[in-house]
Amino acid sequence: MPVTKTDKETIIKKSIHLFKVHGYYNTTMANIGDTCGLIKGSIYHHFKSKEALAFGCLRYIHEYFNTEIFSIAYRKNMSSSNKLEAFTKAVETYLLNSEGGCLLGNFALEISNNIPSLKKEIKSYFDHWEEALCEILKSKFIEQVAQEKAKQIIASTQGSIMMMRLYDSPHTFKNQNNEIKKLLS
C-alpha cells in the first residue's frame, strides 16, 4: 500500500471508527496505520502513544458534542421543549450515522478502570451531557429532580445504544428518544 501524508484530524477520525467498531484493545497502531495509509511509526509523529491517540479521539468527540449538541441547552431563543427536541434529534443523528455506537460509552465499559487519564475525559464528557440536560429540564423540574432525570436519560440512551448494536436495529434507541421528548410536553 502506498504511504500517504495524513494530518492529525484525519488520523483521529479514522481511529474513532476503528475504536468504536473493534474496541481499544483490539485496535492496534498497525491497524490505524493501515487504515490511514501510513506506516505505524508515522502515527507517532502526531501521537506519542496509543493512549494519547485515544485521548485525542475522546477530546475530538467531546468538543464536537460541546459545540454542536450540548450548546443547544443554553440557547436563549428556544423554548425548553424545543431545546429537548433539538438536543435529542442531534444525539440521534450523530449516533445513527456512526457505526459502532458511542465511543465514550464503549470506552467507559472497556478501559475506564485501566487508564485513569481516559477515565477522567470520559467522566468529563458525561458530566457535560448531564449538565446540558439538567439545564433544559430545570424548566419543569426542581434542580435535584432535573439532575436525576438527566442521569436516567444518559443511562437509558447508552443502554439503548447497546441494544441497537446488539440487535442491529435502531428501534429501541428511537423509542427511547421519543420517551425523552415527552418529558417536557
Features:
185 residues, single chain, 70% helix, mainly alpha, elongated, 9 helices, Tetracycline Repressor, domain 2
Layout of SSEs?
Blueprint: H1 8-22, H2 29-36, H3 40-43, H4 50-68, H5 80-96, H6 103-110, H7 116-137, H8 143-167, H9 171-181
Rough outline: elongated
Number of domains: 1
First CA to last CA: what distance?
A: 55 Å
Rg over CA atoms, rounded to whole Å, is: 18 Å
Strand content: under 5%
Highest CATH level, the class: Mainly Alpha
Annotated CATH homologous superfamily: Tetracycline Repressor, domain 2
CATH architecture: Orthogonal Bundle
Helix coverage percent: 55-70%
Structural class by sheet pairing and helices: mainly alpha
- Give the biggest beta sheet: none
Average pLDDT taken over every residue: 93
Q: Count helical runs.
A: 9
CATH topology: Tetracycline Repressor, domain 2
Secondary structure: number of strands: 0
The secondary-structure element order is: HHHHHHHHH
Low-confidence stretches: none
